[in-house]
Amino acid sequence: MGYTTTHSKTLLCAAHISCPVQVLVVDRQNGSAEILVDTVSRLIDSDISVTTFEDPADAMRHLEMKHFDVVIIGLDNNGAEPLSVMPYIRVQHPDLPVLAIGRRIRKSDLACAQHFDVQDVFLLPQRASKMKDLASYLSEKYFTQTITV
Predict the structure, then answer these.
(1) pLDDT, tens digit, 9 for 90 and up, residues 117-127
(2) Which strand (E) or helix (H) includes residue 6?
(3) What is the Cα–Cα distance from 57 to 81, expressed in whole angstroms?
(4) pTM tops 0.90
(5) Quick one: CA torsion of 141, 111, 86, 80, rounded to 10 degrees?
(6) What total number of domains does the chain contain?
(7) Secondary structure (3-state) at 123
(8) CA 114, CA 96: separation in Å to the nearest integer?
(9) The domain containing residue 143 runs over which residues?
């Protein structure tokens, strides 16, 4: 079962409409990706709508029903293959940015991420200053979306 949360800062600003960035998180509850998105959403000045699935198959089905701007995959799934969604994403949504994050990163996950062109692979920061740096990077590169009308 998935769920969606929206972290809203501002919806209208002059001649610009700021739509929430649509983020799909594939991770276990309280996993690295979920922690990252929750923390980043509190630190940046952007609207983020987050949809989270623990089951990669559910996430893949949802990708066909809704537009997403970025996918974030948690790598801490205790024996599961968290990047199993990548072949599907690269065939069906080849331009969709995908990020992966974990408390530890196995060599096999890193190899899979490189093979399927995952844009960024991160270790979950343990220090607040590093999390702020990562939030700034993600905000600038992935979580900014403004439509001019």
Answers:
(1) 999 999 999 99
(2) strand 3-7
(3) 12
(4) no
(5) -110
(6) 1
(7) strand
(8) 15
(9) 3-7+10-148
